[in-house]
Amino acid sequence: MSKVATTNGTTPATTKGGQAAGAIANWADERLGLGAAMKKNIRKVFPDHWSFMLGEIALWSFVVVLLTGVFLTLWFDPSMTEIQYDGSYDPLRGVHMSSAMASTLDISFDVRGGLLMRQMHHWGAMIFIASMMIHMLRVYLTGAFRKPRELNWVIGCLLLLLGTIEGFTGYSLPDDLLSGTGVRAADGFMKASPVIGSYMSFFLFGGEFPGDAIIPRFYAMHILLIPALLLALVAAHMLLLVYHKHTQWPGPGRTEQNVVGYPMLPVYAAKAGGFFFIVFGTIAMMGGLFSINAVWKYGPYDPSKVTAGSQPDWYMGWPDGLLRIIPPWETHIWGITLSWNVMIPILVMPPLMLMILMALPFIEAWITGDKREHHLLQRPRNAPTRTAIMVALMTFYGLSWAAGGNDIIAIKMHLSINQITYFLRAAVFIGPVIAFLITRRWCISLQRHDEEKLLHGYESGVLVRSPDGAYAEKHLPLPEAKAYTLTARDDDPTPETPEQIEASGATGRSLRLRRLRARLATVFFADNVQKPTAEELHDAQHHAEHELHELESQIAAGPNRHGPTEH
């Protein structure tokens, strides 16, 4: 059979293979609509800004975790069967341990590249959770969570929750002394739940702790259940990103209706692909140079032993810190002990903080009454109350996280652990309030600074002496692009007045809610500086042009003018 293309001189040359491929592609497109979808999205435009790469770090580190996890799965044995270790690590040879611990040691010392893969997997998980947190901070502080992206914010919160649980199940798998201590703590947390706690523990461990089922069950959750949920949520997150179009920073030519940037192919795909290799290389370098989770130093888990100074991975540190500083509160009622000192920091605060995070977009939308779609980002200073709320939450998180190392702080800084504990008990309440007040006033001050630059220009550094001997610094007008960026924002909505609420005819519960919303909106926007009006900007521009012309004339006539000096 000839494979030479044929032509009659008037139609394009074809081959039988090309005709078959075209027919298959046409058949699939008629049934799946892939061609239309590709044509629509292949040239989709994405804006270009360094802050948008924080989400890409989370995505690509997740990919690295998946790739290294597949490698580790081939050699890890998720069994709690007790064996005698006879591998390459001499200090533990002959010690009885679980098959899970032994296979972890084998991966670390006997599988070529195994230790690198283990450490890349662990570092990748750390970076995945950290980058998700920083990405969510960027999204919140710039207002990217507003309509129509509230659901994508909720998905991000769920991704953070699942990533944390995935990390806990992952570092529990080696069955070493440190991870076993963490699992033992989890057993105690469940048993602190009133009435159902012992049943929950019995169900999870398949009997009394530790049993012989927890590692296989964590393994199934770690490699199947939670990754499947993570992949589904990541896919939904990316689809909504494409559907809603990407947010962008204000600037010339950028509006709520367009996106200024680069197309998906070839520019953005090439940049994203290159950035993946940067993230991959960074994690590989960290895995090769920095030791993490050296399980051979801890040894196998023994319920009778606890490692001194043991701490969970950093993202589990803040509830551990609350657990350390809470007073020993307990209640005995009807033969049941309510351990508030365990329930509040572990069973109440984490879900409460998650619910607060998930509710933030909806609370702000209700208070402000803002039902518009937003595709332009806000500078954090232009939403002082929102920025201050997040800084207060960050302060609470940071102080709680520091409390998780109160023993280490006491040892390293030669301080009393009791004094540190008492200080942090007060600081977790007072610190967020102070941080809120300072941040809000700081943002308002920055707003006033921006207004000053818009109306009076920026400091030129040129001092001019007047005929009467006074010195003054001349101001120059901002570049048009900079001025546009500072003014490309909406004015804050005006809260309803009591007269408007009374005139609305609302009664009962509706009236009380409207009064509450008006009061909250007044507090939310209090002291905010609105952007100058068009008339104010026009007058300021005219004044700046006059000052610039005057400055140029003074320089030209002064003793330091260029050219030869006249005598």
Structure description:
With 567 residues, this protein is mainly alpha-helical. Helices cover 62% and strands 5% of the residues. The protein contains 20 helices and eight strands. A two-stranded antiparallel ribbon has the order 1-4. A two-stranded antiparallel ribbon has the order 2-3. Strand 7 and strand 8 form a beta hairpin. Helix 5 packs antiparallel against helix 6, helix 5 packs across helix 10 and helix 14 packs antiparallel against helix 16. The longest helix is centred in the last third of the chain and has 40 residues.
Order of helices and strands: HHEHEEHHHHHHEHHHEEHHHHEEHHHH
Rg calculated over all Cα atoms: 31 Å
What percent of residues are in strands? 5-15%
Number of strands: 8
Strand order of the largest sheet: 1-4
Number of helical segments with 4 or more residues? 20
**Helix/sheet category:** mainly alpha
Low-confidence stretches: none
Biggest pleated-sheet summary? 2 strands, antiparallel
What is the CA-CA span between the terminal residues? 98 Å
Level of helix content?
A: 55-70%
Mean pLDDT: 87
Question: How would you describe the shape?
Answer: globular
Cofactor: heme
Organism: Nocardioides humi
Catalytic activity: a quinol + 2 Fe(III)-[cytochrome c](out) = a quinone + 2 Fe(II)-[cytochrome c](out) + 2 H(+)(out)
Domain Cytochrome b/b6 N-terminal region profile: 24-250
